[in-house]
Amino acid sequence: MKKIILVALSLAVFIVAGCGGAPDDPEQDRKIVAYYNVQQLSLSGTSSKSETEEAENMVNRIIFYGIDRQNTVSKLLTEQNPTFGSTEITVSQDILSIFAVANPSSGIELATPQNLADLTDMVAEFANMPATPFIMSGIAVIFNNVANIELIRTIAKIEFLPSSELVIETVTVTNTPNQGYVFGRGSAAVPPTASRISYPQIASATPIIYVAENTASDPTAFVVTGTFEGNPARYEIPFEIEKGVSSAISRNTHYQIPIMPISEDACIVNITVLPWNVVVTDAYEPDDD
Q1: Torsions phi, psi for 37 (to 5 deg)
Q2: Range 268-274 contact pairs with CB under 8 angstroms and sequence separation of 24 or more
Q3: Cα–Cα distances in Å, from 123 out to 110, 127, 159?
Q4: What angle do CA 239, 252, 145 make, to 5 degrees?
Q5: Do residues 120 and 162 both lie within one domain?
Q6: Is the same domain home to 270 and 175?
Q7: Are residues 253 and 211 in the same domain?
């Protein structure tokens, strides 16, 4: 399992400050290849978990930005409906790193970041539950004219697993941010402009929902309704990985919430944290020579 790395601002500054070697001639353009994930929905028409996973990995539009040694950002290329998992891009020799945003919203599409601060302040809007294709981002140093970009989803996946005695009818998400940073800052950072919202009831017997990352200091919670042994049941479930301690929700993470009812209004919950498969294609390994 590839280790998931959320690239913080300090790391990004380090990356663009000189890793990968200084260019010989900043005025001369060069062609590089950016590798990234592309996965289309199945056309079979069947409903399966693998199809859900394909939707979670889909890329239907991707924007590439270049970052130079002065940490100046420039928009390089936008590709619609990519099909090959790689793109050839012409850049100046002064460009040292490539930042990519997949499935951008209209606000991101129109943004014109000029520097790293602009880039890391970019915000994704979530008026309701995030839906596929998800906004993803990644950064990579150019090495031997290749950038292997690991696209990381901006949101988390929550999967509810009821016991056999419980039939879930609806799930409501409460106190979730309506915004998230496009570029991962770590520690489940929330933009200061974010508001707190609740999702409308989600009707599903085995619900999988998607939420923005959130801090432990103002945690997200869930309300589950259904029937327990045939009787109406309702459970308020705080997001606590350790019992009694509010937990942050981190991007690109898969949380499973088994629900074991004790009565119609009480249950036992043990949240499991799983790695959500990092969105990446076959990475190119350049030769040393």
Answers
A1: -80, 140
A2: 269/237, 269/240, 271/239, 271/240, 271/241, 271/247, 273/241
A3: 12, 13, 25
A4: 160
A5: no
A6: yes
A7: yes
DSSP class of 241: S
Q: Give me the mean pLDDT over the 92-108 stretch.
A: 91
Q: pTM for the full model?
A: 0.81
Calpha distance 249→241 (Å, rounded): 10
Q: How many CB atoms lie within 10 A of CB 98?
A: 26
Asked if residue 129 lies in contact with residue 181, where contact means CB atoms within 8 angstroms, the answer is no
- End-to-end alpha-carbon separation of the chain, Å? 28
CA angle 187, 191, 195 (to 5 degrees): 120
Q: Is 33 inside a domain boundary?
A: yes
Task: Indicate if the pLDDT at residue 196 is higher than 90.
Answer: yes
Give the model's pLDDT for residue 22.
46
Is there a cis peptide before residue 133, judged by omega within 30 degrees of 0?
A: yes
Q: For residues 284 and 148, what is the distance between their CA atoms, to the nearest angstrom?
A: 7
Domain with 110, as residue range(s), is 9-153
Three-state DSSP at 34 gives strand
Among 138, 153, 168, the domain boundary falls at: 153
Check whether residue 88 and residue 16 sit in a common domain. yes
Question: Tens of pLDDT along 153-177?
Answer: 999 999 999 999 999 999 999 999 9
Per the structure, the count of domains in the chain is: 2
Which of the listed residues 153, 188, 218 is the one where a domain comes to its end?
153
d(CA 265, CA 262): 8
Q: Is 38 helix (H, G, I), strand (E, B) or coil?
A: coil
Residue 266, domain member (yes or no): yes
Nearest to 124, CA basis, from 189, 60, 218, 175: 189
| Residues 177 and 63 grouped into a single domain | no
